[in-house]
Design brief:
This protein has 306 residues and is of the alpha/beta class. It has helices at residues 13-19, 26-40, 43-48, 59-64, 84-92, 105-114, 154-163, 184-198, 215-225, 244-253, 263-277, and strands spanning 74-78, 97-102, 121-124, 138-144, 164-175, 230-243, 278-280, 289-302. The chain has a domain at 13-177 and 205-239 and 294-302: Rossmann fold. Strand 7 and strand 8 (289-302) form a beta hairpin. It binds S-adenosylmethionine. Residues 33, 37, 44-45, 48, 79-82, 84, 102-104, 107, 126-128, 144-146, 149-150 line the site of S-adenosylmethionine.
Length: 306
């Protein structure tokens, strides 16, 4: 097993490549994601499940709204991670036929525990090759906070199209525009400035295909794979509050970039982050309250049915 998060920070083929000023390839990306998730399985769930929008929904619940409540449908959660979205769907409607796919065994192990008494079918596979799923067999493909990590992305969208039946829909939860969530850009810039002290090109080159991060380029991509489809992108903001250091640690845990920092740098970044996120000034950090908000977007692709 690789020695990660040691005194040298996290190392992967992807970070090595950036450090040497090279452009990491897709194998390096897979290696990096596996390295992070091997050690920190469940970190997305830890943050995303506690951040809620004005109506009290977390981002899993917001994405799950795409699935009708009372039908027996075939649903695929692409890059299901530790399984929180599948759990929401299973608890809501036992007639759903649920499948989850992820490439990280550590995440799937958590999902197995979470979904222990369900019939959810969990499969280890890359999203670029869904050969375990038959053509035209799925009613809705969901993908929560993972599309931004996938490169190449076109084979993923082609596979989604192949497995969907002719009335099938695709919905994905992704990062929203930075400026809609208070202080989010400040948080992002702080974390990236720390990481760039160690790896200057981090950020200039980021995980995944950058086209997923812009709404116009994302719509264009979706329209290319699903010509004539109705493509919508809605935005929302989810937040969490609590003791500021705890909020700062959970918020930092949500940024893949933050895992690259050596422990000492991470500590000082968390202290700076706590200052940004503080909403009630008290004399000690332990007494201070903090709030972290994240912008999210929900992509919905409804293919054109003739
Ligand atoms: C940020 S986590 C999100 C996990 C889960 N959907 C959630 O929101 O809690 C990203 C997940 O995508 C998975 N992933 C990233 N790229 C993938 C790929 N190309 N194929 C399959 N899984 C992938 C990772 O293993 C990880 O579990």
């Amino acid at each position: 097993m690789k020695n990660i998060n040691n005194q040298n920070g996290l190392n992967s083929i992807w970070t090595d490549s950036l450090t040497r000023n090279l452009h990491p390839d897709s194998n390096a990306l897979i290696d990096h994601l596996r390295t992070v998730h091997q050690e920190h399985a469940g970190f997305t769930e830890a943050c995303a499940s506690s951040c809620r929008d004005e109506s009290g929904r977390n981002s899993y619940e917001w994405l799950a709204e795409i699935v009708p409540h009372n039908e027996s449908l075939n649903i695929l959660d692409l890059a299901c991670g530790s399984g929180p979205l599948l759990k929401i769907l299973f608890d809501r409607n036992k007639n759903l036929n649920l499948k989850g796919i992820d490439m990280c065994p550590e995440e799937l192990n958590l999902a197995k525990k979470l979904l222990i008494n369900s019939k959810v079918n969990l499969i280890e596979s890359k999203a670029q090759n869904l050969s375990a799923i038959n053509d035209n067999s799925i009613d809705i493909v969901l993908c929560h906070w993972a599309l931004t990590l996938m490169d190449p992305i076109t084979p993923v969208l082609d596979e989604v199209k192949r497995v969907l039946n002719n009335k099938g829909q695709f919905a994905a939860l992704i990062d929203g525009p930075m400026n809609i969530a208070p202080k989010y850009k400040e948080v992002h810039d702080l974390i990236y400035s720390y990481v760039q002290e160690e790896i200057p090109s981090y950020g200039e080159i980021d995980l995944g295909d950058p086209r997923i991060r812009g709404s116009k380029s994302l719509s264009d991509l979706a329209n290319k794979t699903f010509p004539g489809a109705n493509v919508t992108i809605e935005t929302n903001v989810v937040s969490m509050s609590g003791p500021v250091t705890q909020v700062a640690k959970i918020a930092a845990g949500f940024f893949y970039a933050a895992f690259v920092l050596k422990p000492k740098k991470r500590e000082s970044m968390i202290a700076d982050l706590s200052n940004i996120l503080t909403i009630s000034k008290k004399s000690t950090y332990a007494e201070r309250k903090g709030r972290f908000s994240m912008p999210i977007s929900r992509l919905l692709v409804i293919p054109n049915i003739k």
